Amino acid sequence: MADESWVFRVVPVPGESLGHFLGRFRRANGLSHRAIADYLGVRGAWVQDWEIPSRRRKPTELQRLALAKLVEVDPKQLAKMLPPERLHLQTRLCAACYAETLVHQTVWQRADKAVCDRHALRLLSACPVCETDFRTPALWDDDRCEHCGLLFRQMQAHQQLSQRQRRSPALSAKLEASGSGQ
Ligand SMILES: [Zn+2]
Ligand SMILES: [Zn+2]
């Protein structure tokens, strides 16, 4: 077994998207897209594309195996982190989830999801104060809107309840009591 211990290991959080994870991994190791591409024997532009789901380029199974070895993550887990087939193009956020775990989640980009299942809150597609689009999750190292500086976790106050929740105040109170953890 080859010794790859020169890398600083970054542990993916359950549900974390590949782009967000790759951004964290690259920053922790001070690696450029090019350096990772060279290691994997692929083009630099491809690694960049893997971090930007709207470009619709995903690592192939073989590339995932090589990547898994580099980042020391199980290939099956890496596969789960890939962007969904039916992709919502704008980067989305559940601020309530983010307040608990500081990662972008793959499930937020599913085109058939508009609401966070855990919090029954509508997913945000832009900053609720200045309406600037979110940056691609690979660049989320400062946890805030790049334009007005509002912290992602503070955006929770602007997230709306889903239609169903609005009709059921009792359930919504229950969710708040169990889900906030503050
Ligand atoms: Zn949530
Ligand atoms: Zn903003």
Low-confidence spans: none
Major beta sheet, strand line-up: 1-2
What's the gyration radius in Å? Answer: 18 Å
Span of the ends, CA to CA: 45 Å
Structural class: mainly alpha
Assess the beta-strand content as a share of residues: under 5%
Mean pLDDT: 91
The biggest sheet amounts to: 2 strands, antiparallel
Q: Provide the succession of SSEs.
A: HHHHHHEEHH
List the domain count as a whole number. 2
Shape, principal axes of CA atoms: elongated
Précis, in short:
Helix content is 36%, strand content 2%.
How would you explain this protein's 3D organization?
36% of the residues lie in helices and 2% in strands. The chain has 8 helices and 2 strands. A hairpin with a 4-residue loop joins β1 and β2 (121-122). A two-stranded antiparallel sheet has the order 1-2. The protein is mainly α and 182 residues long. Bound molecules: zinc ion (2 copies). One zinc ion is lined by residues 94, 96-97, 116, 118-119, 121.
